[in-house]
Design goal:
Elements lengths: L5 H8 L3 H14 L8 H14 L1 H4 L3 H33 L7 H14 L1 H6 L6 H11 L4 H26 L3 H5 L1 H12 L2 H17 L3
Length: 211
C-alpha cells in the first residue's frame, strides 16, 4: 500500500475505510511519526467515497463523521499530554538546536499571542496538526482551554472537509477530474495558517511604525 496516496489507502481499506481512516487520523494527529499521512485528502476522499462507492454508501454518514471526529480530537489530546509529560524531560536531558529552554519560552510566547487561532488553524496544515498539540503541552498551556479549541478545530476540520467531499462527490465533473480536485483542495486547505501569520505580522508592523 502507498501510505502517501489517500486514494490507494481508501481503496485498499474497502468496507473498513471509515474505521481505517479514523485510526490513521488518530496517529497522524497524536505523534510526529504519523504526520506524513495525507490527512486532508483522506477526509475529503472518505466523504466522497461515502457518497459514491456502493458498499460504503450503506455506512451512515453521520456515524462516520462522529467516528472520525472522535479520532481526530483524541489524537490531539494524546499529543498534548505527550508534550506535557515527556517534553520537559527531553529539553532538560539534552539541549540541542531544537530541544532547549529557549524553544520552550518561544513556544509559550507564541501560544500566548495567537492562542485559539494557532490551535484551530493548525488543524488544516500537514505536520503542524501533529506538532502543535505537543508544543502546546510543553508550553504549559491550560488543558481546559486546549480541549475547547481542540474540539472546535477538530469539528471544523473533520466535519467541514468530509462534508465537502460528500456533497461534491455527487457532482459529475468532480468524478471526471478527481485528481485535480484533490490537489486543489490540498493547496487551499494549507493556506489559512500562513495567511493568519501574515496578517499578524502586518498588524505588528503597523503598530510599531512611527506615526
Amino acid at each position: 500500500m502507498n501510505w502517501l496516496n489517500a486514494d490507494t489507502i481508501i481503496a485498499n481499506l474497502g468496507n473498513f475505510a471509515v474505521w481505517g481512516v479514523a485510526i490513521i487520523i488518530f496517529f497522524e494527529t497524536a505523534t510526529i511519526f504519523g504526520s506524513f499521512m495525507p490527512g486532508d485528502s483522506l477526509l475529503f476522499l472518505l466523504g466522497l467515497s461515502l457518497a459514491t462507492v456502493p458498499n460504503l454508501e450503506k455506512f451512515p454518514f453521520v456515524f462516520a463523521l462522529l467516528i472520525v471526529f472522535i479520532a481526530a480530537v483524541a489524537g490531539s489530546e494524546v499529543g498534548f499530554w505527550l508534550g506535557k509529560r515527556l517534553g520537559p524531560h527531553l529539553f532538560e536531558r539534552r539541549s540541542t538546536w531544537f530541544f532547549n529552554a529557549k524553544t520552550v519560552t518561544r513556544t509559550q510566547e507564541f501560544f500566548t499571542r495567537y492562542g485559539a487561532r494557532a490551535i484551530i488553524l493548525a488543524r488544516f496544515v500537514p505536520v503542524l496538526r501533529a506538532l502543535v498539540p505537543m508544543f502546546v503541552g510543553i508550553s504549559h498551556f491550560e488543558w481546559r482551554r486546549f480541549l475547547r479549541y481542540n474540539l472546535i478545530g477538530g469539528f471544523g476540520w473533520v466535519i467541514g472537509v468530509m462534508n465537502l467531499g460528500y456533497w461534491l462527490g455527487q457532482i459529475v465533473w468532480v468524478h471526471q477530474n478527481i485528481e485535480l480536485v484533490v490537489l486543489g483542495f490540498v493547496v487551499l486547505s494549507s493556506l489559512p495558517f500562513p495567511i493568519e501569520l501574515l496578517r499578524n505580522y502586518l498588524r505588528r508592523r503597523r503598530a510599531s511604525a512611527p506615526n
